[in-house]
């Protein structure tokens, strides 16, 4: 399903005029009535809207980026971007119409959007050169109204380098800050942007997630197409499914706590972006592989509990319990768990044929029934089983799965 885009007009008391805005709702907006979405506010919406929407749509397709509501402000009439973003040359603060526009965004536009659409308490602001520099003024507030800034080749106001660094050093709420330049950027702007990065690189504030990109072979305008995905993937890095790199560098090297890592990953998503998501099957497989590789078989119990919560009435939880018993040498209980899994719904690449094959293999390794004192194993559940069943074994590294449509 494609994104729905609405073009609307908002009457501003602060500006004493009407302003055109464009709102793109995510593909799932009409279906997931309870879901709230982060908001991405774009200045220079006339040319940035489609660029951001394209990058986000691609990220949605691969489940690499969360769905967001895009709100763009049109600024292409009567040189609006220049007058909207006026800064006083002495103070470096919004002045004249810039002061009114500053209040329009924070006191009129954002409240209107939050009143009419399901907005999560996470806001991103983005702009290019003049508009990017202007957006940095929101950092000067004790509690910025934005949680993330995408400042592409910003035209910095008076003393803005020092002020931004001071605020990033002192801020006590989680904040993402992205800015960039390029070797083909406007020279006078590039010099100050590089100076800002040199100062910001010394910041030691765990609340701030900071990134600077210096693109090679790019101009002032072409850097935008490099910066947009880089910034979005910085801000939403925790959202992505567990990759091979994350598995090898962050998970499998842990001495224990593989399931805790998974829980914390999704807790952070909910805490940071107000996104309560079902844990992906690919991420369950990654933790399964880490447990097997490190022989931490007791953690399958905790993983099974998580599976029951996320995939109830499926075979995932019983499958994890069966793995734990089998790896610990308790074949009788492993067999019962595989047979229990057989009775549940298939999920991911787990099938009834696979559960039955595992059960049959265990039966072959166990003593025959009927001897005195020996436990009698339950018969196969009454369901026709194909003569041939696939031979699948769990992989020890996570696989990248294409999102089903």
Automatic annotation (TrEMBL):
It comes from the Bacteria. The keyword Hydrolase applies. Residues 387-397 have a biased composition (Low complexity). It comes from Flavobacterium cheonhonense. It holds the Pfam family Esterase. Residues 376-386 have a biased composition (Acidic residues). SUPFAM superfamilies: alpha/beta-Hydrolases. Residues 360-405 are annotated as: Disordered. This is Alpha/beta hydrolase-fold protein. Keywords: Hydrolase. PANTHER family: ENTEROCHELIN ESTERASE-RELATED, FERRI-BACILLIBACTIN ESTERASE BESA. GO terms for molecular function: hydrolase activity.
């Amino acid at each position: 399903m494609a994104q729905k885009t609405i073009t609307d007009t908002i009457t501003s008391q602060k500006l004493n005029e009407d302003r055109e805005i464009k709102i793109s709702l995510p593909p799932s907006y009409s279906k997931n009535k309870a879901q709230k979405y982060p908001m991405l506010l774009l200045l220079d919406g006339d040319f940035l809207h489609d660029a951001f929407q394209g990058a986000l749509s691609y990220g949605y397709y691969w489940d690499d980026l969360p769905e967001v509501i895009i709100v763009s402000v049109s600024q292409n009439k009567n040189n609006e971007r220049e007058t909207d973003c006026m800064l006083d040359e002495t103070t470096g603060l919004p002045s004249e119409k810039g002061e009114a526009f500053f209040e329009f965004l924070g006191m009129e536009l954002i409240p209107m959007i939050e009143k009419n659409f399901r907005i999560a308490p996470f806001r991103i602001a983005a702009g290019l050169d003049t508009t990017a520099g202007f957006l940095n003024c929101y950092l000067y507030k004790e509690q910025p109204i934005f949680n993330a800034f995408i400042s592409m080749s910003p035209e910095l106001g008076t003393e803005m380098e020092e002020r931004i660094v001071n605020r990033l050093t002192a801020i006590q709420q989680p904040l993402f800050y992205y800015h960039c330049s390029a070797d083909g950027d406007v020279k006078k702007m590039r010099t100050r942007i590089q100076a800002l990065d040199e100062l910001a690189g010394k910041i030691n504030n765990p609340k701030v997630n900071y990134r600077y990109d210096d693109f090679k072979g790019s101009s002032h305008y072409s850097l935008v197409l490099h910066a947009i995905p880089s910034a979005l993937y910085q801000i939403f890095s925790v959202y992505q499914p567990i990759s091979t790199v994350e598995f090898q560098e962050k998970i499998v090297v842990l001495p224990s706590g593989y399931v805790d890592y998974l829980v914390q990953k999704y807790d952070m998503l909910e805490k940071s972006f107000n996104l309560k998501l079902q844990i992906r099957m690919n991420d369950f497989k990654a933790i399964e592989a880490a447990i097997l590789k490190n022989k931490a078989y007791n953690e399958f119990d905790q993983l099974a509990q998580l599976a029951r919560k996320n995939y109830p009435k499926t075979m995932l939880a019983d499958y994890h319990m069966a793995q734990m018993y089998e790896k610990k040498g308790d074949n009788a209980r492993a067999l019962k768990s595989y047979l229990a899994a057989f009775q549940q719904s298939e999920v991911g690449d787990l099938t009834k044929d696979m559960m039955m094959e595992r059960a049959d293999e265990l039966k072959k390794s166990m003593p025959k029934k009927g001897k005195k004192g020996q436990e009698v194993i339950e018969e196969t559940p009454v369901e026709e089983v194909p003569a041939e069943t696939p031979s699948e074994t769990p992989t020890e590294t996570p696989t990248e799965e294409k999102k089903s449509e």
